[in-house]
Amino acid sequence: MSQSKKLPHYSMYINGEFVDATKNKLFSINPHTGAPWATFATSKAKDIETAVVAARRSLDRGKWAEMLPTSRGKLLFKLADLIEEHSALIGEIETNDSGKLLAETVIQTKYVADYYRYYAGLADKIEGATLPIDKPDMHVFTTNEPIGIVAAVVPWNAQMFLTATKLAPALAAGCAVILKASEIAPCALLYFAKLIHAAGFPKGVVSVVTGDASDCAIPLTTHPDIDRIAFTGGPDTAKQIIINSAENFAVTTLELGGKSPILVFEDANIESAVNGIIAGNYGASGQSCVAGSRVIVHRTIKQKLIAKLIEKVNLINVGSPTNAKTHVGPLCTEQQITLIETTLEDAKLQGAKILFGGKRKDVEGYYFEPTLVDCHDDSIATLKVEMFGPVMSMLSFNEEQEAIDLANNTDYGLGSGVFTDNLARAHRVSKKIRAGICWINSYRAISPIAPFGGYKRSGYAREAGLQSINDYLRTKTTWINVSNEPMANPFVMR
Q1: How far apart are CA 419 and CA 309, in angstroms?
Q2: What is the pLDDT of residues 341-385, one digit of tens each?
Q3: Is the pLDDT of residue 419 over 60?
Q4: Greater model confidence, 190 or 489
Q5: Which of 265, 257, 260 is nearest to 418 (CA)?
Q6: pLDDT, tens digit, 9 for 90 and up, residues 126-169
Q7: Residue 4 — pLDDT band, cuts 50, 70, 90?
Q8: CA spacing 20 to 30 A to 379: which of 6, 79, 275, 324?
Q9: Is the pLDDT of residue 93 over 90?
Q10: First CA to last CA across the chain, in angstroms?
Q11: Bridge partners for 261 per DSSP
């Protein structure tokens, strides 16, 4: 008890108030040290009920219901400025919470402000249409209205970014949002609630909660008043989300994980390709949904590429995420390391070779060495399991179609990369890869302007971009009889 009093504490945010745990208070573990660094409040079902009731009230009456789209946009602009202003502190909290590099969390948080600005500008660009209807004396038009209450479920690995891709378009559309932060590392989002409050959003429009499945996620996603669920996470949890949505018929979108391929052709710039596959595998310590963890390289350049890769990996600094010279920090949880170790053992039994890395670092905290697994075919375990860590698996190919077949031989389809100097091949191959994103001679780039999402077990629908705001709208059609004559025969459809 005395220890918890010394640690910073993060409350939930419900109906415009900061509330403490009605269930219990949990410790957040710093992945760098493996020790508690903060405490946070968690919810019970009654907290979720309070949040939903408040959200419905904000949509039905009061300031938010009456607020004009331009005014909603101004609140989002204000929120963006606050995010940028507090990006260093939010980055520090997220790093302590998840182990992500401080340099990345600060920069990413600052850039996230642009997502709110992008959708702030769209808030008053939501238009309807007048229909050239095929009926006499009828004026018919459409309007786009907020879909209602959104349950936004966000993972720990890119929480500010993946919150922005849901919260920003939802608020621009006029929805109310209940944001469910991951109980693994929720503190950055719980602090973010202070900025939402400071921006001046009316009570109930946004609530931020966290907790486990039984006391938080299930009561939220099954609640009869939830109109839309926006979920980012793993496929197994997504299945449960879909089952839960059957209780309320909520529109559901899923942004899930992947085993993304990076194809390196014989004409590729080796320097660029190696930098790309390092970014895709060891960037963010491999804890990215779009991690390019399956590298598929032309057989004629494989050894040259491996040699260059080893040269660069030897320069990688693994260490404290707060050190500016660190390239790879700790993993978020001990469970991730256990999964990696188990999967690597399975791969070795299948005949795969570990060319470097392959073990945890002998230090405190949750550290694992950057690893390369040489695979003789695509049945190897490391090519199938999403490990969420710095583990790269490499396959070789001879012909273009073989590379495409290897790339598509997966249950996932989120990201992909192609390295080639042949423009025609770049177009040809990217078109045939079944993935929602394809980077050519680059990897892991993002923008509020560019939508992303998956195929197959990587989910469906898209986040970011112009069209994603439509996911938070419903179209209403209004018919007006402009004739002075009485309505015709009521027993005949007009």
Answers
A1: 15
A2: 999 999 999 999 999 999 999 999 999 999 999 999 999 999 999
A3: yes
A4: 190
A5: 265
A6: 999 999 999 999 999 999 999 999 999 999 999 999 999 999 99
A7: very low
A8: 275
A9: yes
A10: 72
A11: 294
pLDDT digits (tens, 9 = 90+) for 189-238: 999 999 999 999 999 999 999 999 999 999 999 999 999 999 999 999 99
What structural domains and CATH numbers belong to the chain?
Answer: 2-256+454-477 (3.40.605.10), 261-440 (3.40.309.10)
List residues bridging with 141 in a β-sheet: 130, 478
The answer to whether 296 touches 406, Cβ cutoff 8 Å, is: yes
- Return the exposure string of 222-241: e unless at least 16 CB atoms fall within 10 Å of the residue's CB, then b: bbeebbbbbbbbebebbeeb
CA-to-CA distance for 141 and 288, rounded, in angstroms?
44
pLDDT at 48: 97
Please list the residues that pair with 419 across neighbouring strands. Answer: 264
Question: How many other β-carbons are positioned within 10 Å of the β-carbon of residue 133?
Answer: 13
User: Which residues fall within 8 angstroms of residue 63, CB to CB, at 6 or more apart?
Assistant: 202
**Token digits for 472?**
């938070």
Please give, one letter per residue, the 3-state secondary structure of the chain.
CHHHHHCCEECEEECCEEECCCCCEEEEEECCCCEEEEEEECCCHHHHHHHHHHHHHHHHCCHHHHCCHHHHHHHHHHHHHHHHHCHHHHHHHHHHHHCCCHHHHHHHHHHHHHHHHHHHHHCCCCCCEEECCCCCCEEEEEEEEECCEEEEECCCCCHHHHHHHHHHHHHHHCCEEEEEECCCCCHHHHHHHHHHHHHCCCCCCEEEEECCHHHHHHHHHCCCCCCEEEEECCHHHHHHHHHHHCCCCCEEEEECCCCCEEEECCCCCHHHHHHHHHHHHCHHHHCCCCCCCEEEEEHHHHHHHHHHHHHHHCCCCECCCCCCCCCECCCCCHHHHHHHHHHHHHHHHCCCEEEECCCECCCCCCCECCEEEECCCCCCHHHCCCCCCCEEEEEEECCHHHHHHHHHCCCCCCCCEEECCCHHHHHHHHHHCCCCCCEECCCCCCCCCCCECCCHHHEECCECCCHHHHHHEEEEEEEEECCCCCCCCCCCCC
Sign, CA dihedral 88-90-94-100, equals: negative
Positions annotated as catalytic residues are 255, 289
Query: Looking at residue 21, what is its pLDDT?
Result: 73
